[in-house]
Every structure is written in C-alpha cells, then in structure tokens.
User: What shape does this take?
Amino acid sequence: MTSMNDSFKLLNTRTIPCLGFGTYLATRGKNPDVIGQAIRAGYRHIDTASLYGTEPEVGEAIQKSRIPREEFFLTSKVYKTDMGYEKTKEAFQRSLDKLQTTYLDMYMIHWPLPYVNYTDWRKLNLDTWRAMEELYFDGKIRVLGVCNCMPHHLLNIMENSIVMPAVDQLELHPGYMQEEAVEFCRKHGIVVEGWSPTGRGVLLENEFLKGLAAKYEVSVAQICLRFLLQSNILPLIKTSSLERMKENQDVFRFQISEEDMEAIRNMPLAGWSGEHPDRLRVAAVD
Assistant: This one.
C-alpha cells in the first residue's frame, strides 16, 4: 500500500480501500460534523453499524458532500439482537433507510453470539447469513463480512453456505494481535480489518511505542496504523480531530523495519478491551 487510495482485493474480486473511518461514538463529542469533516479530509471508506447509532449522521454527511454514492465504500452491521433470517432482513432495511442509500458495499454480522453460552449460535449464524446471501444475490449488498469471529465461527459459515465471508473485523493492535484468527483468515483469503488500532487510546502512552515513534519521527498512532498495514491488516481509524484525521492518512511515507516489526509483535498484552465473542467481558488491559 502506497496511499490511502490503494485497496485490498476481496474474494469476490471487489476491492476495499486500505484505510477506513470508524464512526463508533463519533457524534457524541464536541464536533457534530465529524463524519462530514472526515469526508472532506478524503475518507471514502466509512464504517458504521446499527449499534453505533451513527447511521443517520453518515447518510446525511454523504448526501451533503454531493460526492457520488459510488465513490464511497459504506459498511454497516446487523447487531446480535437482530440476528436470524427475518430479523436480519428487517434490520438491513432499517439501515438502508437511515443511511439514505439503496445498497451497502458491505454488510456484516457484528457478533457471532447474542450472549455468552448461547448454545444454538451455529444455526442463528447460518439463518442470518442466508438472509444476507439473498440480499447479496439481489444486488443490495456488494460484500458479505463478519466481525469478532474466531476460526470456529468462520468454519460454520464457510462449510454451510454459498458465499464465503470476505472480511473479518477484529480488535487488532500492538499488544493484542489474535494471531490464530488472523492466520486462519490469511490462509483462506479473508481480508482482516482491525478495530481499535490504538487500543482505545491506551497505546498512545506506551513507552516502547513512544520510543519507536521518536525513532521514525512520527506519532504513536501512525506507528500503530503502519504496523497493521505492514501486517496486511486494514485499520479502522476513529478520531474527531481534523488534524489527526490528516495525520492518520500520512502513514505511507515511512516503513517500519522488520526488526522493529518483530519487536512490536512480541509486545506483552496491552490495550485489550476485554471483549471476546465466547467469554464474559473481563477488565480492560492497559
């Protein structure tokens, strides 16, 4: 990747821009126009979800931008309380209405289990996926994906469906790289997206990463993003600051050495949210 205009190629031959702008909690700060600002800063890959409550703001910002819809890569997700065949189709239509669009570039299962120890998750995922496949074949979804899925969740879909998951969105950052899940995705050609690339901001104060940032004369956030890109992972960036929006795009003018990449890979656990699809949430790891 040499610029934010470069893309990852997906299993169905479509492409996805290599930097995404995440909108979780994006409109709860002091800048109500944060999504419009991100669009003006050049972001065209916009990630939202029904859970985030930002779909109306994303739709409005795209309309106000006067940029053709086809220039955007727009993602939303079906939340775990809306899974199942009929409920997924209803949730999808609500998302379309809020986003003021007739199709989504990608639609994803947000979590594979509605709650921990839910025993019938395999059928629930397949019923949800069947609804998504029908929407895909109807041309209303361009790419099907999942979030927070481990290999056993992916295999259930892969072995019982027509359309393969093209993307798995996982919490990924220095100090929490979920190597087994990432390696499984690579083996099967599934593009990996990384949410919370700076570990909820905790990593911005990590002394080791601050040292690397000084070495490369960049910010810690840029180190985190560049590390993911060099690991062939698509980072999802979230910020309300125009300055940081632009800074986060400027990650293509430097390269982390393999020695430093290996050092980052071997960092101790840091920045983990405590979320896991099959386990009760634990205290976040700073």
Notes: The beta strands are 7-9, 15-17, 20-22, 45-47, 73-78, 104-109, 141-147, 167-171, 191-195, 234-237. The chain has one domain: 7-265. The chain has a mean pLDDT of 96.
